[in-house]
Amino acid sequence: MKLNKILNLIIFASLAFAFPDRAKAQINAEQCITIGRNVLSMDDYMLSIQYFNQAIKAKPYLSDPYFFRGLAKLYLEDYKGAEEDCSLAIERNKYKTESYKVRGFARQYLGKDSLAVEDYEIGLKDNPDDKYFLFYKGVAETELKRFAAADSTFSRLLRLYPRFEDGITARARLRMVEGDTLQAVEDLTASIRLAPASLNPYLMRAEIYANQKKWAEASADMDEAIKLHPQDADYYLNRAYLRYNNDDFFGAMADYNYALELRPYNAAALFNRALLRYEVRDFNRAVKDLEEVLKIEPDNFHARYNRALILLELGEYRQALNGFDEIAKKYPRFYPAYYAMAEAWHKMGDMRQAILNVNKAEDLIKKYVKNPTKFKLDRPTIASGANTKGFDETATDPEGEEDESDIKVMEKFNQLVTVGATQNPQLSYNEKIKGRVQDRDMSIEPEPVYAVSFFESPKSLRTTSNYFRELDDFNQGGYVAEKIYLTPGNVGLDNEEAVQSIFRRAEYYNGVIADGAARPADYLALGVAQTMLKNYPAAIAALDKALEVDPRFTVALMARGYIRQMQASSPSVETEGETAVEAELKRRGAMKEMADAVADYDAALAINPRLVYAWFNKGNLYYALRDYTSAMQCYSEALRIDPEFGQAYYNRGISYLQLGNKRQAFIDLSKAGEAGVIPSYSLLKRMK
Question: CA nearest 199: which of 152, 248, 234?
Fold first, then answer.
């Protein structure tokens, strides 16, 4: 079990301490630290990081801003960033004990338990009775399987703090790992008596009861867990598994239904509900559920196999054969698929094919029996992160046993799935920029390209100013009445008044052009208005006119590049009766728009090679083409020009992720979070 399965609260009660008076020259840095600490105490971690960044810029030799920034990153579950910041704090002040506590905690989550223990031992030299140094040290020793040392640490902890329920729960975990489930249950029961609203003791005790097949007791503990966290779909999924094993089919079905209300695309809940429906012979709805699973997880061969079995029962033999055939192609030594195909061919009256498939299955079995090591049988796995062994994720997979019969294989292949029962529960926060933003459910999408707009982008935590010289010169020159901005995405049209104001601007500049006295600035303004209204052909026409008169009009090049990029990335609308040739022409048109967009950005960069937003937009264009290497080169060039460009760090991070380079992705996403790109912490957590 991972560390975060038993740690729910992080309490650093001893962090508050007074700052000594400083000279007047240091007031700004001190003010930033003080405000940052106040913001941190209100759980506004993202904003607090920005204050500590400012303090570090002003006084990089101070220890405190690095420590508090590391603490904020810890709360955001950016453990690598927290470790690095605390190390920087310790370099500047090795006597700051709390830095060792935070760094040790971060190292535990990074799997560096030995280093974490070293940090805790340094802290315990100065504070031998510190509750949390002892607690974290005992947990780390458990992970390292230093059971005698962990037992000694927990004994000291609970002798000093006998009513510390988290310590009792951690000792229960130690006893579970050692196999002493009787003592573990006693500890968990004691912890529940002390803190009835603590979640993990119920989850851990349910795990023990489930492994002992005490379904009613395990279900009762899951009832309590659900009372404490009623919005967690995974808990309903696990309780349904327990209810099913306790012959409570109606209760299990109700839990799967509610789990899917909470999370409609929960593949495990859909899969399990399908199996229950299959069991009560509700075949059509079972097939529908499995088809939904396959939309979410196309490689889930458990779902594909069970769907084919149901289609076989429904008499849809040809469709069933297609399903079995796909499985056999992926797992050519999974012999039950051949038996199933034999049955389908038999039902269709083709005895020759039926016999061939039976012979194929029996030949695989004979070879396996003759030499199991050389002729291993395929064991398809579930595509999702779920498991088929109840709550015990560390149990030996029974499918690996060599003497497994055909019936056992089929039983395991059709078994209900669960999720890890004692995972760290998540708290719900609002959509504001505060709290545990990493817990918010965000899609993994690149930060948007930059557009030219009449509206300024909403204020955010990000350090990028959206400035480039030519746009500033244009605004300073007063060529048009309105100020023009560079914004991430086409922002601003979120209400009727805003929409009408842009329509009025478009009408005005159309009138100016109709009078015959239009300048490039007027064409640009019209192009911006039409872009905001998503009238891309009219916008392109206006910007073409501006660039005919002034080919070095960088703002117009950026604006036209954005439109071409949007046109290329917009999904093509299929027309009725569209031929393959017409579809291919559309595809080629999109590719031409992409090429033209690159040409515009390259033209802008020829005029101003330091135009980071042109590099960034080009990066997004290559990202959309799945040319992640070229995308990363563009983002890297933007970061060479502006090392604090958070959005470029984020997009380069997800590009690394697409290429499977998690180590570099972690580094870039941590930097992006530090720079104020909110989705970074959600993605960092999901990557773990």
Answer: 234
Q: Which residue is it, tokens 């760290």?
A: 424
Residues of the chain with pLDDT under 70: 1-27, 379-443, 458-465, 490-496, 570-586, 686-688
In 3D space, the residue among 151, 243, 145, 176 whose CA is nearest the CA of residue 422 turns out to be 176
CA-based end-to-end distance of the chain? 14
CB atoms within 10 A of CB 618: 27
Summarize pLDDT for 190-223 with one digit per residue, the tens. 999 999 989 999 999 999 999 999 999 999 999 9
* 3-class secondary-structure state, position 15: coil
As beta bridge partners, residue 488 has 450
Q: How far apart are CA 327 and CA 647, in angstroms?
A: 42
For the chain, the helix, strand and coil percentages under 3-state DSSP, each to the nearest 5: 65, 0, 30
User: Residues 336-382: pLDDT tens digits?
Assistant: 999 999 999 999 999 999 999 999 989 998 988 888 887 788 766 54
Q: Determine the Cα–Cα distance for residues 534 and 532; give it in Å rounded to an integer.
A: 5
- The conformational region for residue 247 under phi > 0 = left, psi -120 to 50 = alpha, else beta, is left
304, containing H or E segment: helix 301-314
Q: What pLDDT was estimated at residue 265?
A: 86
Query: What does 438-498 look like in DSSP terms, one character per residue?
Result: GGS-----PPPPEEEESSPPPP-S-------HHHHHHHHHT-SSS--EEEESS----SHHH
The model's pTM: 0.62
